[in-house]
Write a structure and sequence with these properties.
Chain lengths: 143, 433
């Protein structure tokens, strides 16, 4: 059920983020979500795209080091308390959240929570039990 | 079966070698005294005349030549033959200051190419081999030297020059090249690129490589040998002394044989100038005994090596030098500690990383800053800041243990460290002292 996310290494200096977005834009890669984490001297861009294989190939050709990882995607109503409920279900399963980012699903009226967790099956089971709706790769692609 | 280009010379007795060296040295000193006023003046300052030099036992009486002399005498001041007898110049890359221009007569070219031919045959080369020369061509001696040597062996010579990695790999595959000649850093880079293309060592036709023009460690040798599936041989030389081929490795891969019929090797204490015994590391000093156009006498190479006169299993009798430990001039003194770039390479390889690094030294508020940039490899990458930082910490720890001082380790994008003429730019020293 989980979703594939691409992580990319970038140096922490002016222009590197622009270069990365240009490499993707030049090949017409359409991003669903983009998040950036930073340490002192490097950054880690995390991207959800329409076509994972195509984007991976484009990044490789442009000389980037990237990897794919499995993350949990949850569709939540865009109302106050939406994120809190999702996190309480994950916590109930005693699963740790390594990082998380959210984006709005436009016309769908939903918000999406992308979440890297220590135990995907346990988190997903708890979310399902409470009736939270897990989003699939194709649902994200069609947004 | 050991492979020789000039067996009689390469396996001559010590007495024979000494006799050649003594006769040639005495004649060379006389010729230089008469034809090179710059060196004559240096001899006069020490009160030495050609009559004082009867054989190699007298070599210590002669004045040294250094890179500074080459600069002073630039461009013609050390010319030992009439310019009309010269047929070629080659020049240094100028990475450590002003360029050096070296001159050659046809005799000089021949002896240089013979030396390179010996190196190629010692690496197993024969006329049936395809030798891909991926050293830079042009002013740089790497391309011209191995190119000429390969002709003398009778191998099929592929004059690729450096760069254009895709084309290099295409020729290696299409022409089934068996011997690769280039800088070790370029060999490592070619290996990485072939690995990325999914080529395994048994799909690469190369069997040997002759790599020189920059210092490289044993660990780097193993890594290149593994990726390319070859035996990697070291070759030593300097533009001032012809170019590559002053010394070369044999099947034993344990030190490089100096071509003693053309070059006399001494190892000295760089401070006092005294001779050091076999096994002790010091500065290599070379005298070219029969070069005509650019006759270097007691040239201080700045390379730190040790000599070995021990018999070698390959049958060659010429003295061996160790792999240079570094150069007196690329030794950095950072916060009072001696640092050789090769030590950083060793740390990276020991930890299983590729040795693509750059050292940046600066001085801020009277304190040296020491940064090591390391190219990130796919193996080091993970979707976790912590995991990547752990690699940084491991390198930092390794450097601290090796050098005794702390370095700031920065991970940089793959292939972002500049490579020039195939030589990686390893050190950027911004200190203004």
């Amino acid at each position: 059920m989980s979703v594939k996310q691409i992580s990319v290494f970038i140096e922490n200096r002016p222009g590197t983020l622009m270069e990365l977005s240009k490499a993707l834009s030049d090949k017409g890669i359409d991003m669903r979500a983009f998040s950036l984490a930073e340490a002192n001297d490097f950054g880690l861009a995390r991207i959800i795209v329409r076509d994972v294989d195509e984007a991976t190939e484009v990044l490789k050709e442009a000389g980037y080091v990237s990897s794919l990882s499995e993350v949990v995607a949850v569709a939540v109503p865009d109302v106050s308390g939406g994120l809190f409920r999702i996190l309480s279900y994950i916590t109930e399963a005693n699963v740790n959240v390594e990082y998380l980012y959210c984006f709005l699903g436009g016309r769908s009226g939903k918000a999406y929570v992308i979440c890297k967790v220590s135990d995907i099956p346990a988190a997903e089971a708890s979310l399902k039990k409470h009736g939270a709706r897990l989003a699939t790769q194709s649902e994200l692609s069609q947004l | 079966m050991e492979n020789y280009y000039q067996k009689d010379i390469e396996t001559a007795s010590r007495e024979q070698i000494t006799q050649w060296q003594s006769e040639r040295l005495a004649a060379q000193v006389k010729r230089v005294y008469e034809n090179v006023p710059y060196y004559r003046k240096k001899m006069e300052e020490l009160g030495v005349t050609p009559e004082d030099i009867k054989g190699i036992e007298d070599i210590g009486k002669l004045p040294f030549l250094s890179k500074a002399d080459l600069r002073d005498a630039y461009p013609y001041g050390l010319l030992g033959a009439p310019l009309e007898d010269c047929v070629r110049i080659q020049s240094t890359s100028g990475t450590t200051g002003k360029r050096v221009i070296a001159f050659y007569t046809q005799h000089d070219i021949d002896l240089w190419e013979d030396c390179c031919a010996r190196a190629i045959m010692a690496a197993g080369g024969t006329k049936k081999d395809v030798v891909q020369v991926a050293y830079g061509y042009g002013l740089f001696t790497g391309g011209a030297g191995l190119h000429g040597g390969s002709h003398k062996v009778g191998s099929l010579t592929v004059p690729m020059s450096s760069g254009n990695t895709e084309r290099q790999i295409m020729f290696i595959q299409d022409l089934q090249a068996t011997i690769l000649c280039c800088t070790p850093s370029y060999a490592a880079y070619l290996g990485e690129s072939m690995k990325e293309m999914g080529l395994t060592p048994d799909q690469i036709p190369l069997k040997a490589g002759i790599f020189g023009a920059e210092a490289w460690s044993e660990e780097m040798r193993h890594s290149i040998e593994e990726t390319l599936g070859i035996k990697a041989y070291d070759i030593y030389g300097l533009t001032e002394l012809s170019g590559p081929g002053v010394a070369f490795e044999c099947s034993e891969q344990n030190g490089m044989h100096i071509n003693e019929d053309h070059f006399i090797a001494e190892v000295i204490d760089p401070e006092t100038g005294r001779h050091l015994p076999d096994g002790e590391y010091g500065e290599l000093v070379i005298t070219a005994v029969d070069k005509e156009a650019f006759p270097m006498i007691r040239y201080r190479t700045k390379d730190i090596v040790a000599l070995s006169h021990k018999p070698c299993s390959c049958g060659r009798t010429h003295v061996r030098i160790s792999k240079p430990k570094g150069r007196t001039d690329d030794m950095l003194i950072i916060r009072g500690v001696n640092v050789f770039p090769s030590q950083i390479e060793t740390v990276l390889l020991n930890l299983g990383y590729t040795p693509n690094y750059q050292i940046i030294v600066d001085r801020v508020n009277n304190t040296d800053t020491f940064e090591v940039k390391v190219e990130l490899t796919p193996e080091m990458f993970a979707d976790s800041m912590g995991a990547i930082s752990n690699h940084q910490a491991a390198i930092s720890e390794g450097l601290k243990n090796m050098l005794g001082i702390k370095a700031k380790v920065t991970l940089v994008a793959p292939k972002s460290i500049v490579r020039s003429e195939g030589k990686a730019v390893r050190v950027i020293d911004r200190r203004k002292i």
